[in-house]
Amino acid sequence: MQAKICVLPGDGIGPEVVAEATRVLLEVGKRFGHEFDLREALMGGIAIDKTGSALPDETLAMAKQCDAVLLGAVGGPKWDDPKAKVRPEQGLLGIRKGLGLFANIRPVTLYPSLIDASPLKRELLEGVDMVVIRELTGGIYFGEKVRHADRAVDTCVYTVEEIRRITRVACETARGRRKKLTSVDKANVLETSRLWRATVEELVKSEYADLELEHILVDAAAMHLIQRPARFDVIVTENMFGDILSDEASVLAGSMGMLPSASLGEGRRGLYEPIHGSAPDIAGKGIANPFATILSVAMLLRHSLSLPAEAQAIERAVGKAVHDGVRTADLAAKGAASVGTRAAGDAVIQRLG
After folding, report:
1. Which CATH number characterizes residue 94's domain?
2. Quick one: which of 337, 316, 330 has its CA closest to 274?
3. What pLDDT is stored for residue 338 in this prediction?
4. Which of 164, 197, 245, 250 has the fewest CB atoms within 10 Å of its CB?
């Protein structure tokens, strides 16, 4: 297979973790007989500095010409002024909209050898294996925004079609797992959530009656993620709720540095990135955890390139590395030895099947 991959290293630790992920990707290409053409472009704070835009037109055009996009992270203190007209996160919102990526998929998988890295008790974590599916292009993040001297307004808007298409992604995911779908909303207060709940209910009853569906309020979901996380299989929710809950769920895995994500649309092209941020406090030190970005490459191979065996090879290699005690600083016990970013990448490459 030949495939073109748009690579957006971004800011902070982004270039460091992306470098390891692309090394793994190219090694997979060698071992399985594929040719991956990597095309690097600017996005985020570095793009603002060099072009004045968080998402230059050239970057979006390149992403549209490629089979998939691999992203590191964007942002940092340099661009944190809330009054700034151009901010790094505008690049994220822009590329999602530009590529029509409406579904963010965040698997939360616990490696047995990392259970003690989580702040939760071991007995709470046993059996945790879930996927959080977040709607990406609607809701309060994309609604009309108004600012006055003494008040501000952020509008939350959802349409039936937006809710139906993200619910279908969640239902298909649940069918391939334990057939349990949890829809999260705030239907006791918000009109958009009442529409959400009614639409999910109707779609599941009419097209996915084989699934077990439950509705849960977002505040209760946040509580259950800590108290009884193993009860969840597939969670589907709107943009802001999904943003918050999926970050909360990352604590279960012991570190944000272990969790990948995929942002998908109607076609095969997707954007793949670790769920963590740019971590400017450790940028340039060579100690960032690249596992989430490497696992994002596995998701890229599976979803955009239809290469499940290659994806599994990466996932197994990461699992073996973790099982063998390869720990970056975020995973190591206090006072224990840890490896750097490059060594973690080496460990995965050495264990590829």
Report:
1. 3.40.718.10
2. 330
3. 94
4. 164
Q: What is the pLDDT of residue 14?
A: 98
Q: What is the end-to-end Cα distance of the chain in Å, rounded?
A: 18
Residues 129 and 229 reside in one and the same domain: yes
Q: What domain count does the chain have?
A: 2
Instruction: State residue 346's pLDDT score.
Output: 98
* Residues 267 and 216 placed together within one structural domain of the fold: no
Query: 219, 281, 285, 324: which one is catalytic?
Result: 219
What DSSP line would sit under 2-67, residue for residue? EEEEEEEEESTTHHHHHHHHHHHHHHHHHHHT-EEEEEE---SHHHHHHHS-SS-HHHHHHHHHSS
116 part of the active site: no
* Domain range for 202: 119-253
Catalytic (active site) residue 141: yes
Please count the residues of the chain: 353
Active site residue 186: yes
Q: Answer with the one of 229, 253, 277 that is the final residue of a domain.
A: 253
Q: What is the model's pLDDT at position 175? A: 97
Q: What count of Cα atoms within 13 Å lies in the side-chain half-sphere of residue 192?
A: 19
Q: How far apart are CA 115 and CA 255, in angstroms?
A: 10
* Final residue of a structural domain among 232, 253, 274: 253
73 contact partners, CB below 8 Å, separation of at least 6: 10, 11, 12, 13, 14, 17, 44, 273, 274, 276, 277, 278, 279
Kindly report the number of other CB atoms within 10 A of residue 172's CB atom. Answer: 12
Q: Which of 11, 12, 60 is nearest to 39 (CA)?
A: 60
- 270 vs 153: CA distance, rounded Å: 32
| Alpha carbons 66 and 301: distance in angstroms, whole number | 13
Q: Which of 154, 247, 320, 346 is catalytic?
A: 247
Residues (pLDDT < 70) of the chain are none
pLDDT of residue 83: 81
Active site includes 158?
Answer: no
334 counts as catalytic: no
